[in-house]
Amino acid sequence: MHKIRTLGRTAGAVAFLLSGTIFAQAADVSFLTHWAPDTVAKLEAAAAAYTQSHPDTKITVRAVPFGDLLTTLRTSGGGADGATIAGIYDAWLPDLSKDKLVAPVPDAIAADTKVNWPAGVVGAASIGGVLYGIPNEIDVYALNYNKKLFAAAGIAEAPKTWDEFLVDAEKLTDKSKGQQGFGMINSWAAGVLHPFSSLLVSNGGDLVVDGKPTLDSDAAKQTFELYETLISKGYSDPAMATADANTTGPFLDNFVSGKTGMIIMANWWESALKGGMGDALADIATAPIPVGPSGDVPRSISYSWMTVVNAKASADEQAAAWDFLNWLNGPDSGPNGASAMGDILMSMGILPSRTSDGAAFADRLAGDPFLTGYTETLANAKGFPVVLGGQEFSEALQKTLEAMQFGQLTAADAQKTAQDDATEILARNAQ
Amino acid sequence: MQLSQRRSAIAMLAPATGLIAVFIMVPMLLTIWLSFQNWSTQTGFSTARFVGVQNFLDIFSQTTIGRDFKAALVNTSLYTAASVAIILPLSVALGLLVHQKVAPGGVFLRTVLFSTYMVPMIAVALVWSKLYSPTEGPLNQMLGWIGIGRQTWLSSPSTALVSIVILNVWQQVGYFTVLAVAGLTQVPEALYEAAKLDGANPVQRFFTITLPLLGNTLLFSAVIAIINAVQVFEPVALITQGGPVNATNVLTYHIRRVGIERAQGGLGSAMAVTLMLALIVAIALLFAVSRRADRT
User: What SUPFAM superfamilies would the database entry show (chain A) (predicted)?
Assistant: First the structure.
């Protein structure tokens, strides 16, 4: 009898422990990102801090190169076994929501998000008034220039207009040293498109207005002609412009090694520059995008990233994912009233979009000379168009701009091709 | 064959044929069916809408869809033709070098050549993307030592595809050399002895004995080389992403871009079916040419 009782107690204890184990991992949440290993480690540390108070949630982080992020999301990410949370680029949202791959933000979190983030950023994370993700980073573009090359060429300050920009590009170009004045990018859609778009909006133009492409405007014509001038006069060498799947490659190498005088790039690449330049990053300064002949003030395009939740994950997983994201992006998870997400973003030189993060990191933002050119531009930035077929539109325009870079199209032909292709693509995808 | 024998034959063949049907025929037939549908790869098959041959008309049209597909088809054809045209003669030449018994080191050379085939493509891509770097790459630095100017390699639409071909040749030629050596071992030594007695020089012996008797090996090598080349994906995905100016945008990469990134499953399937048909035609032509050569 004693043995039976002992056996019964043991069985009961085992059953309790087993049930505890099961409940302890009731929700498995996976987080898909394109961040580098050191940033992934910071996210894992934040997840570990969260699971201390939420032992029923297990969070794992999976990282893929940026070039594979959308594909991963579209293949494994779209099923019930795909990542529960994914960091996505706002231009992808219309297609992902159309295919019902992303879940709407729960009402309470959506209401909190609308209060604590700028309306433009919330709008970029919404389709038809429904919020699909919690925004985190915002990126704008600025002129990055090498102060040593500027000093050697006798240039005192960053160009403020396109005329000054062309004069400086000429002074910085020295073919005998393999040095180009302005560095373009190719083989990477965003790398090709965003600098061009930033020059376009700084010239008073737009890519898309009310869902219709406006690449046939005079402002666009002048921007295409600016690119043609940079190429035809040899101020920009397309052979120095290649990017690889990790958004690095020769274009970055040439800037890092002092063979490129100026480049237009987003704030997030500060971490890439740090990796390549180390202390020599102090030689790099930033300034707002030069203003074109049809522009009024320096502008840049902006785009944002957000975290979304897999609509095909189970209800428990979705609930756990939203709870974690709400904490990660909330004011209690990071230092001094900042969010843990904001802290992670700032470690990469990325501007967090949560309003209170801006205040929490105000000193760091003001004290970081690299970010100066970006923060000055932020107020006048124009959002990159978020439309159905955005990826296809971007790739078509990329191809046209690259064809112009390599002298296969004149500015006039490139402008016509870009407008015709964009009209056809946006109309087809809107159906 | 008696009924009982027939039944047991069917029973024994059923597992293998069943697996072939499930894992090969069903996906193939599904792809063909999808090529006539308008379908997002992110939705169930139930959402597919029949559009007839519209997808095939679109991929050969003058729109961006058609232009990009036709350019990818041309790129794939050029890549395949160049790869096969370089790999086959080179593998025979290296095979002769490895197979010869006059100088030592044949086995070592064969091992070195085959080792490139065993290196994972991710490692090959990482190394070659740096080797090809136009300003700081070792290849251009070495060319500079012998007075040859800077080459653009992957950084120009005029040289990018050729650069990918060179990478492919470097990686694959060892494998095809081993095939060539296997073919050379099948050539009877007595034929060479007889030819020598008849006064044939080495060049004559190569063209009258070696090459004709390597016919089957070369046909097999050509088929494998064509299939490998048509399926090229990794170097493009890892190094060039189809650029610059879509110069290295080959069909497998383009189908992935259309079918997965853009979720245009119907169009992607139509492209995949066209690629399959093109491959079937190319291989059939190769066999026809080979049979004709055998008869003459």
Answer: Periplasmic binding protein-like II
What is the spatial distance between Cα B152 and Cα B166, in angstroms, rounded to a whole number?
A: 14
Q: In chain B, which residues have their Cβ closer than 8 Å to the Cβ of A99? A: 40, 42-43, 263
| Max Cα–Cα distance, chain B, nearest Å | 78
Instruction: Please tell me the distance from the alpha carbon of residue A83 to that of residue A29, in angstroms, as a whole number.
Output: 8
Please report the pLDDT score of residue B208 as a whole number. Answer: 93
Of B68, B152, B241, the CB nearest to A67: B241
Is there a contact between A319 and A105 (Cβ–Cβ < 8 Å)?
no
Stretch B68-89: mean pLDDT, rounded?
96
Please list every residue in chain B whose beta carbon sits closer than 8 Å to the beta carbon of residue A399: 68, 245-246
Q: What is the pLDDT of residues B15-68, one digit of tens each?
A: 888 888 888 889 999 999 999 999 988 778 888 999 999 999 999 999 999 999
Say how far apart CA A60 and CA B66 lie, in whole Å.
42
**8 Å CB contact of A408 and B157:** yes
User: Domain ranges in chain A?
Assistant: 2-138+304-367, 139-302+386-430
In the CATH scheme, what architecture does the domain A2-138+304-367 have? 3-Layer(aba) Sandwich (3.40)
Question: A309: Cβ–Cβ under 8 A, 6 or more apart, which residues?
Answer: A84, A85, A102, A103, A133, A318, A321, A322, A325
Question: Measured between CB atoms, does B135 come within 8 Å of chain A?
Answer: yes
Question: Is the confidence at residue A201, as pLDDT, over 90?
Answer: yes
CATH of A139-302+386-430, one of 3.40.250.10, 2.70.70.10, 3.40.190.10, 2.30.30.40: 3.40.190.10
Distance CA B21, CA B220 (A): 25
Mean pLDDT computed over every residue of chain A: 89
> Do A71 and B244 make contact, defined as CB atoms within 8 angstroms?
no
3-class secondary structure, B166: helix
| A79: confidence class by pLDDT, cuts 50, 70, 90 | low
B61 Cβ under 8 Å from any chain A Cβ: no
**Burial (Cβ within 10 Å: 0-12, 13-18, ≥19) of residue A115:** exposed
- Is B156 part of the contact surface with chain A (CB cutoff 8 Å)? yes
Within 8 A of A244 by CB-CB distance, chain B residues are: 129, 238-241
Helix (H) or strand (E) holding A107: helix A107-116
Burial A392-403, CB ≥16 within 10 A → b, else e: bbbbbbbbbbbb
Closest CA to B233 of A69, A245, A92: A245
* CATH fold of B70-295: MetI-like fold (1.10.3720)
The torsion angle over the Cα atoms of residues A307, A313, A317 and A318, rounded to 10 degrees, is 50
DSSP state of A409: S
Which pLDDT band holds residue A73 (cuts at 50, 70, 90)? confident
Residue A367 has pLDDT above 60, yes or no: yes
Could you give the CA distance from residue A10 to residue A6 in angstroms, rounded to a whole number?
6
Q: Give the pLDDT of residue A245.
A: 67
Q: At what angle do helices A390-405 and A189-201 cross, to 10 degrees?
A: 80
Pick from A245, A257, A402: CB nearest B245: A402
Q: Which residue of B has its CA nearest to A259?
A: B135
